[in-house]
Specification:
This protein is α/β, with parallel strands linked by helices. Helix content is about 50%, strand content about 15%. The radius of gyration is 20 Å and the shape is globular.
Length: about 350
C-alpha cells in the first residue's frame, strides 16, 4: 500500500518527467528550425569553462555529435583554471556564457551588473565518511573533525548548518572545522585525518567509488529548508542585455546543451568516450560520476526553480550574511532567465 507522502512524491516526479520530455521535444524542434537556417553564417558564442569541469563534458558531447552545427552555432571555448576566472571573463566581456550560481548573479545584479541565470545542475555536495565510521546521521557530526570544501561561506556548508540549527545544533561551534580546496580535503579524508568531509558532488562521487559512505546529500536537506523540489544552484550565466539582443541564439544554445544532457542521461557508452575528461581513475568512479550527474539534470519548470531559489536565498542570506549576498535580503528580480520555449 502506498503511503500519502510516497504517492505525492511519485506524482511530483511523474509531473517533472513529463515536463522534461515536453521541454526536450521543444528543444529538438528549436534545433530542427536552426538546421533549416544552416545556409546562414553560424553565430559565434564565446563560452568559458574549466578544462576539467562538468561543463567541459557537455561541450565534448556537443562537438562529438555535431549539436553545435545543428544549432547553427560556432562555439569558442575559453579554458579556465577556476570558476572565479570565469566570472572575471564574463564581467570583462571576454566570454558570453559561464557556469556559476544564482547567489553570485543576484549579488552582481544588486551591484548594477545585469546578469541572468538559466538552470544547469541541481547536483550539490554531500557529507561523506569512511565505511566503518560510527557517524550514521548528521547529528553525529557534533564534536567531530570535519573537512569543508570551499570555505566558510560555501553554500553546501551554509545549508548544512542551517538544517542542523533547526534541531538546535550549532555545528561550527561544536566541531573542529578545516576548510580547504576539494582535492586537498579528499586526500586528508583518505588519510584518515578527518572524521567526515563535506565536499563537492564530483569529489564525493569519487569517494563513494572508493567505498566511503554517504551520510546525506545536501539536496536531501532542501525540503526541510522550504524547497519543494531539487533546486538547481548552478546555471548558465550571461548578460541580460546581450541575451535580449540574441534571444534566438540563447534558445539554440540551451536547446543544444539540453540535447547533450539527454545523450549523457541515456547513453552509458557516451560516458566511456568522455572518461579521460572526467579524470575517473577506474570504472567504479566513472559510474559514480555518471549516476550523480544524471541525478542533477534539471527537470522542473524555471518558475518552480526560481520559487525555491527565493526560499533558499533567504536561508543563505540569514546564515551567510552580507559577506555572501551583499546588502540584499531577497533574490534580485530578473535573476532567472525566462525566455526559453517550454519554460
Amino acid at each position: 500500500m502506498t503511503r500519502p507522502g510516497e504517492k505525492k512524491m511519485f506524482e511530483q516526479m511523474t509531473r517533472g518527467t513529463m515536463k522534461f520530455l515536453v521541454r526536450t521535444l521543444l528543444f529538438a524542434i528549436v534545433l530542427a528550425v536552426a538546421q533549416v537556417a544552416t545556409c546562414c553564417t553560424a553565430k559565434t558564442m564565446r563560452v568559458a569553462a574549466q578544462k576539467t569541469g562538468t561543463f567541459a563534458w557537455e561541450l565534448a558531447v556537443i562537438r562529438a555529435h555535431g549539436l553545435d552545427k545543428q544549432a547553427n552555432l560556432s562555439i569558442e571555448v575559453l579554458e579556465l583554471a577556476s570558476p572565479e576566472a570565469g566570472k572575471i571573463a564574463l564581467r570583462a566581456g571576454n566570454a558570453d556564457i559561464v557556469v556559476s550560481d544564482w547567489l553570485w548573479v543576484s549579488r552582481e545584479r544588486g551591484l548594477g551588473a545585469k546578469l541572468t541565470f538559466y538552470p544547469y545542475s541541481s547536483a550539490l555536495g554531500a557529507v561523506m565518511v569512511p565505511a566503518s565510521s560510527p557517524i550514521r546521521a548528521l547529528t553525529d557530526l557534533r564534536g567531530r573533525k570535519i573537512a569543508v570544501a570551499g570555505g566558510p561561506i560555501d553554500k553546501n556548508w551554509l545549508l548544512l548548518q542551517a538544517w542542523l540549527k533547526q534541531g538546535g545544533i550549532d555545528l561550527k561551534s561544536t566541531s573542529t572545522i578545516a576548510y580547504g580546496a576539494p582535492p586537498l580535503l579528499t586526500a586528508k579524508t583518505f588519510s584518515g585525518e578527518m572524521d567526515a568531509t563535506l565536499n563537492y558532488w564530483n569529489f564525493c562521487a569519487a569517494l563513494e567509488a572508493k567505498g566511503f559512505r554517504r551520510v546525506a546529500g545536501i539536496e536531501d536537506l532542501l525540503p526541510g529548508l522550504g524547497a519543494k523540489g531539487p533546486t538547481a544552484m548552478l546555471g548558465y550565466v550571461f548578460d541580460e542585455k546581450w541575451a535580449s539582443a540574441n534571444q534566438d541564439v540563447v534558445a539554440r544554445f540551451i536547446a543544444m546543451t539540453r540535447m547533450a544532457k539527454e545523450i549523457l542521461s541515456t547513453s552509458d557508452a557516451e560516458w566511456k568516450k568522455i572518461a579521460p575528461l572526467t579524470g575517473a581513475s577506474d570504472a567504479a568512479t566513472l559510474r559514480a560520476y555518471r549516476d550523480r550527474y544524471r541525478e542533477g539534470i534539471p527537470r522542473r519548470a524555471v518558475a518552480d526553480e526560481e520559487a525555491d531559489a527565493r526560499v533558499l536565498y533567504r536561508v543563505l542570506a540569514d546564515i551567510g550574511g552580507r559577506e555572501l549576498v551583499g546588502p540584499a535580503q531577497e533574490l534580485d528580480p530578473g535573476t532567472f532567465y525566462h525566455a526559453i520555449p517550454g519554460d
